[in-house]
Design a protein that fits this description.
Elements (H helix, E strand, L loop, with lengths): L1 H12 L3 E3 L3 H10 L4 E2 L5 E3 L13 E4 L16 E3 L1 H16 L4 E8 L7 E7 L2 H10 L17 E6 L25 E5 L4 E5 L5 H14 L6 E9 L5 E5 L6 H5 L5 E4 L2 E5 L2 E4 L3 E5 L9 H8 L4 H4 L2 E3 L2 E2 L5 E2 L10 E5 L11 E2 L2 E8 L9 E4 L1 H10 L1 E4 L11 E4 L13 H14 L2 E6 L2 E2 L7 E2 L2 H12 L8 E4 L4 E4 L19 H23 L6 H4 L6
Parallel strand pairs: 1-6, 3-17, 4-5, 4-9, 7-8, 8-10, 12-22, 22-26
Antiparallel strand pairs: 2-3, 6-7, 9-10, 11-12, 11-13, 11-14, 14-15, 15-21, 16-20, 17-20, 18-19, 23-26, 24-25, 27-28, 29-30
Length: 547
Amino acid sequence: MALIHLLNHMLKNHPNVAEKLPRTQIIAHAVEHKEALVLPCGALSTWTPPESTGRSPKDTVIVRYPELEEYIDWTSPNNLPLEPEIFEKLWEDALTCLLKKPRLFVTNRVVGADATYALPVRTITDRALTGLFTLNMFRPVPDSIGDSVFVDKPFTLVVVPYDKIDASKYEGKLGKRADGTTSDMIIAMDFKNRLGLIYGSAYCGSAKKLMFTAMNYYLPFENILPIHCSANEDKNGKVSLFLGLSGTGKTTLSADPDRALIGDDEHGWNDCGIANFEHGCYAKLIDLNPEKEPEIHKAVFNHRSCLENGVIIENCMTYPDGTTDVYDDRFTQNSRASYPLRYLTNVKLEAKGGHPDTIIFLTADANGVLPPISRLNAEQAMLWFLMGYTSKLAGTETGIKEPQTTFSRFFGQPFMPKKPIYYSDLLGRKMEEHRSRVFLINTGWSGGPYGKGSRIDIVMTRAMLNAAIEGQLEDVEYREDPLFHLNIPRQCPNVPDEMLFPENTWTDKAAFERRARALAKEFSDYFDKAYGNSAIEEAVRSQCPGK
C-alpha cells in the first residue's frame, strides 16, 4: 500500500524515532520540552490554540471510495467526503512536516478490551503529550491479540497537532472557515486503507473520536454493535449502559462508588456482552465538584509523582503557582482531563461485562419540558434511539456558545458513519434477546428553559438513576405524556413527586405548553426529514413526539 510505504520510508529516514518508550519516559519528554506545566499534584496541565478547544466537525472528513458507497451514509451532515487524491497530498505534506521534526514518538496500542475484536492502532506524532494521550486512552496489546478479527488489519494514525496545512495549496478542496477562507486543519479517515490523519488540530479528543468512528465503521461487519455509552455493573454483575452525547452526564453518572466502572464513553456489544474500547477516561472538568463527583476529582487531582502520574489536564485555568480553577470558563467550557481507568477507586480493569440489564438514554433538554425520568417500551426506545435528542451544550464543539437543539441518531451521529440500518437492527435485536429495560433521563433544565430555569441537580438525577437500575420503578404507577409519548412514574424514591412532571416546576403554565409543543414539532419535522422515506415500522413511527 503506497501510503503506508511512504510513512515507513519517512520513519526509516528520520534520525530520532522513539518507539515503545516506557510511559515514564514519554512523560519526562513532555515535561523537558515544556509541552505542559507540572502541577503540585503531579498532573500535566496544557493549553491548545482557541480553534482546538473542541472537535471541529466541519474539518472531519471521510475519504470517499466507490467501493464504500453502499455502506457510508452520505446524507448525514457529519459525513463529509474527501477525494482520495486530496488525502494523498495531505498525507504527503504531513509526513514531510514530520520528517523535519527533531523527534518522533510512536506508540502501539489497541482499541477494544475484548481480544476477539481488539483493533491494533499505531500512532505516529511529534508530540510526547499526544503519545501519552494514546497510552492513557488506548489499551495495551493483549497477549491474545492473535485471536482478534483485526490482527492482520491494523489501523495507522498520524497526528501533527500544532502545524497547520498550507491552505493556499488546497483552495476549493478543503472546507471553509467562518471568515470564508480555506481551513488549515483536517481530521481525515481512510477506512479502505485503514489510515487516520490529524493535521492542525491540537485537541486531544480528535484522536479519541477518530478511532471511535473507525470502530463504528468496522464492527457492524463483524455483527458487533458499537455504542456511544458508558457502562458499569453492580456487585451481582448486572450491567447498565448510559447512552448520551457529550455533556449529558455519561462520565459523571457512570462513575459510582457503589458500582464498578467498565468504561465511560465507547463500547462494543457482541454475543458475549459489553466491552470497553478504551484504557482511560476523558472527562469534562468544568464545574467539577469534589463532593458531587468525588471519583473523577480524585482521579484527576490526587497527588502522585510526576513521572508516574500522566494525567493530562487540557484547557483548564491554571495559575503560575500551579493552582487550577475548574469554574473559570473564559477560555473554554470544554476543559478536559485524560487519565487511566485504574486511577478510579472502583473500576473493573478487565473492562468487560455481561449483557446489559438496564439501558439509560441521557438527554440534556435546554427547553426544560422533558420529564427528569421516564420509562420506554420497545417502540419508544427504538424511536428515541433513532432520534438521539439533546441540547448541544456550550464548549463541546468549537463555536458553540449557547445550547442548541440537536438530533443525533444513536446518541452519536458524528461518529456513526454507516447507514442507520447497520446500527438500529443490531440494537433492536440485542435489546429484545436480552430483555434490557430502557429509561430516558433528562439531565437538563427544570422550572423553565436555559437562562430562566435551573439545571437539574445531580443529586436528584442520581436518586432517579438508582431507582431505575435497582428495580424500584418496576411496580409504581405511570402516567403517559400524550405529547412526547413517555411513561412518567408518579413516584420515585428520594425525589419530590411534583418534580417528576415538568409542568409542575414552571410558574407560567402557558409558556410551558408553548415551549413543549414547539419542541414536539421539532421532533416531528426532523423525523419526517430524516426518516420520512425510510421503512420505519408504524409502531415506532407513532411514538415520535408531535405525532
